[in-house]
Amino acid sequence: MPRTADPSPGPAVLHGNEAPSSWVRRWTHLIATGGTVLDVACGHGRHLRWLAAQGHSVTGVDRSPEAIAAVAPLGRAVLADIENGPWPFAGETFDAVVVTHYLWRPLLAQIVASVAPGGVLLYETFAIGHETVGRPARPDFLLQPGELLQACSGLRVVAFEDGFCSTPERFVQRIAAVRETKAAGGLPARHRLDIPE
């Protein structure tokens, strides 16, 4: 699938053992305890490992047989070419959907639709401007300003960033957005911005 390796600096790390994205770690607390999580274009499982360690039931999808073999011990592992074949999760929703360093615009609506009521979408990928500092450089794989916000218009945005990170240098957009449900007693849902102790 068109995505790039994690551009983390430092010594070489075995592929798949890189640290999970700070964005995913930052917003994991929004996922229901023991919730189901789908990692789209999961690669060798850096986020699946993190989320399984937090007690979640994880599903990863990727078109690489090697990647799927690597993540199979963590939970459900689905080998599928989601860009050229059917969406393998028709009719399913998840308490969280995680996407990092991956963009295939025809799937954006399906990805958002896969978030269950009360669930969360954690999405982070490269944005316009990144072509000045590295790969990917093709506009097909770079989000336009506000594009992730627009794709999530049916969800409540808890956090959104669109800008430049210096270590390593990259332009990104990232969002944490929830599919709200009615809270008990008519009280507003509390989507914590501070990380629980």
Task: Give a short overview.
With 197 residues, this protein is α/β, with parallel strands linked by helices.
Descriptors:
197 residues, alpha/beta, seven-stranded mixed β-sheet
Give the CA-CA distance, first to last residue.
37 Å
Number of β-strand runs: 7
Strand order of the largest sheet: 3-2-1-4-5-7-6
Number of helices: 5
Largest sheet: 7 strands, mixed
Oligomer: single chain
Could you give the order of the helices and strands? Answer: HEHEHEEHEHEE
Which stretches of 5+ consecutive residues score pLDDT under 50? 1-14
In round numbers, the mean pLDDT is: 87
Describe the 3D structure:
This protein is α/β, with parallel strands linked by helices and 197 residues long. Helix content is 16%, strand content 28%. It has helices spanning 22-27, 46-53, 65-71, 108-113, 147-151, and strands spanning 36-40, 57-62, 76-79, 94-100, 115-126, 156-166, 169-178. Strands 3-2-1-4-5-7-6 form a seven-stranded mixed beta sheet.
List the helices and strands and how they pair.
Layout: H1 22-27, E1 36-40, H2 46-53, E2 57-62, H3 65-71, E3 76-79, E4 94-100, H4 108-113, E5 115-126, H5 147-151, E6 156-166, E7 169-178
Parallel strand pairs: 1-2, 1-4, 2-3, 4-5
Antiparallel strand pairs: 5-7, 6-7
